[in-house]
């Protein structure tokens, strides 16, 4: 390696040349060598030392001479740039002048900045980071710090600001580790334990009571046994559904901040779910009427999660329908944002309307809509904001229906992950309609994350056309 070899040999050359000068000078003083040959020898060795020093001087600078650039070696600055850009997590190098010398794409998206060599304080508004950089420079020791990026989805970062010596002074390398998934896992685990212990207490108490009765007073009453076993089977089924829904909700919450990167056919999913729920509808003498395309509506989404949304909404509509009622299921596509919102949840005159969640992106995006309407008892306006709360029941009558109280909460979190919207409208004595919006997959293929889309739009809005080349 050229650079390493020259640097390693500098000390050796200087030592050899110094020894040669001393030897030649001593021989001249002793009369063993004539003056001219001694001067020529000393001059030659000095020239070698000076030449090597000049080369080494250039090697220590940020830029090498052209003759050395063609050797394939990287300069210090180039090496830092390659290293920072190779990091998958956000990473920034701040030069001794306090400017962002290089930042990888993850850091640029996170702090939403463009351009080259901006002042760090003009890009980052986090006092924790700015303070850590100052401490790293003053104490010359790595500084650990953390911060939470507030937004629609809070993101937690654990960071290190480490001083790095350069030829022009002391810089700082900032590395950030995204701990959002870890924090969400901790919260999900705590919520799971709290909710599971609360909701499972009732069926477990019921099962324990029946077992005690069957072992005691009803020990020989076979008729009572049959009745008790039927009730116990229902309680066990309730616990099974509850555990499945809690696990499903926990999984979705863990990945809620990551937008899906795959495509799925929404129309085909709805058709399959409708066919699978026909036996349930027939059991309650309810009809399911699906209108719209049977397939070919591609949205950016996870197929299993789309099926979960459709199943929860259609099953919920069947549950609150009366015999001979019809559950209307509509699948629409190619709608603008305003059209999609209108079709999803603004169609019942006099109905109370509420947006449970809305994570939609730009108005230019096209959307697909799934709308499910029943002709059940409907709900009063005051209950709508709480529909997606876990285990929430409007009244004892609705609470007697089969279910865990988690279905709409699951739908809400799935729609947040898919950067869609979830709306409801309801009128007492008329019925209830739930609508969800999914961005079509052919929109914004290169901008697979909503944050990146928002960043691009803000950049184009604030930067003059001449600067963007448009």
Automatic annotation (TrEMBL):
Enzymatic class: transferase
Protein name per UniProt: histidine kinase
Domain of life the protein comes from: Bacteria
Histidine kinase domain: residues covered: 195-442
Membrane-spanning segments: 12-30
EC number: 2.7.13.3
Pfam families: HATPase_c, HisKA, PAS_4
GO biological process, alphabetically ordered: osmosensory signaling via phosphorelay pathway
Gene3D superfamilies noted in UniProt: 1.10.287.130, Histidine kinase-like ATPase, C-terminal domain (3.30.565.10), PAS domain (3.30.450.20)
A GO-annotated cellular component: plasma membrane
PANTHER family: SENSOR HISTIDINE KINASE YCBM (PTHR42878:SF12), TWO-COMPONENT HISTIDINE KINASE (PTHR42878)
Phylogenetic lineage: Bacteria, Pseudomonadati, Pseudomonadota, Alphaproteobacteria, Hyphomonadales
Localization, UniProt: Cell membrane
UniProt keyword Magnesium present: no
One annotated GO molecular function: phosphorelay response regulator activity
InterPro entries tied to this protein: BphY/WalK/GraS-like, HATPase_C_sf, HATPase_dom, His_kinase_dom, HisK_dim/P_dom, HisK_dim/P_sf, PAS_4, Sig_transdc_His_kin-like_C
Primary subcellular site in the record, as a coarse category: membrane
Catalytic activity line of the entry: ATP + protein L-histidine = ADP + protein N-phospho-L-histidine
Keyword field contains Amino-acid biosynthesis: no
Keyword list, A-Z: ATP-binding, Cell membrane, Kinase, Membrane, Nucleotide-binding, Phosphoprotein, Transferase, Transmembrane, Transmembrane helix, Two-component regulatory system
């Amino acid at each position: 390696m050229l650079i390493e070899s020259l640097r390693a040999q500098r000390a050796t050359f200087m030592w050899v040349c110094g020894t040669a000068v001393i030897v030649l000078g001593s021989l001249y003083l002793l009369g063993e060598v004539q003056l001219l040959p001694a001067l020529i020898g000393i001059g030659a060795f000095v020239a070698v030392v000076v030449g090597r020093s000049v080369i080494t001087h250039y090697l220590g600078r940020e830029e090498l001479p052209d003759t050395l650039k063609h050797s394939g070696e990287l300069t210090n600055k180039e090496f830092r740039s390659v290293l920072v850009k190779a990091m998958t997590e956000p990473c920034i190098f701040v030069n001794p002048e306090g400017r962002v010398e290089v930042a990888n794409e993850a850091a640029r998206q996170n702090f939403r900045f463009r351009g080259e060599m901006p002042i760090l304080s003009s890009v980052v508004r986090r006092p924790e980071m700015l303070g850590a950089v100052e401490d790293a420079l003053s104490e010359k020791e790595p500084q650990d710090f953390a911060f939470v990026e507030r937004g629609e989805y809070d993101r937690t970062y654990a960071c290190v600001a480490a001083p790095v010596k350069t030829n022009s002074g002391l810089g700082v390398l900032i590395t950030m580790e995204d701990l959002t998934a870890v924090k969400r896992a901790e919260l999900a685990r705590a919520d799971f334990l709290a909710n599971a212990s609360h909701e499972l207490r009732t069926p477990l108490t019921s099962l324990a009571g029946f077992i005690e009765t069957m072992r005691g007073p009803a020990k020989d009453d076979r008729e009572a046994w049959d009745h008790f076993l039927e009730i116990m089977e229902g309680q066990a089924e309730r616990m099974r559904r509850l555990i499945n829904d809690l696990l499903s909700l926990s999984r979705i919450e863990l990945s809620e901040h990551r937008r899906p990167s795959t495509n799925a056919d929404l129309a085909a999913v709805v058709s399959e779910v409708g066919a699978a729920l026909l036996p349930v509808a027939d059991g309650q003498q309810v009809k399911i009427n699906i209108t719209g395309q049977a397939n070919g509506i591609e949205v950016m989404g996870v197929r299993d999660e789309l099926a979960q949304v459709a199943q929860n909404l259609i099953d919920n509509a069947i549950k609150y329908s009366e015999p001979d009622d019809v559950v209307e299921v509509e699948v629409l596509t190619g709608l603008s944002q305003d059209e999609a919102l209108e079709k999803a949840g603004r169609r019942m005159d006099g109905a109370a309307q509420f947006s449970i969640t809305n994570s939609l992106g730009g108005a230019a995006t096209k959307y697909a809509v799934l709308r499910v309407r029943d002709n059940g008892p409907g709900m009063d306006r005051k209950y709508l904001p709480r529909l997606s709360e876990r285990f929430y029941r409007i009244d004892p009558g609705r609470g007697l229906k089969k279910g865990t109280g988690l279905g709409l909460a699951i739908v809400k979190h799935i729609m947040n992950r898919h950067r869609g919207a979830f709306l409801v409208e309801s009128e007492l004595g008329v019925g209830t309609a739930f609508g969800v919006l999914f961005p079509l997959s052919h929109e914004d293929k290169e901008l697979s994350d909503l944050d990146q889309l928002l960043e691009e739009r803000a950049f184009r809005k604030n930067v003059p056309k001449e600067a963007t080349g448009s």
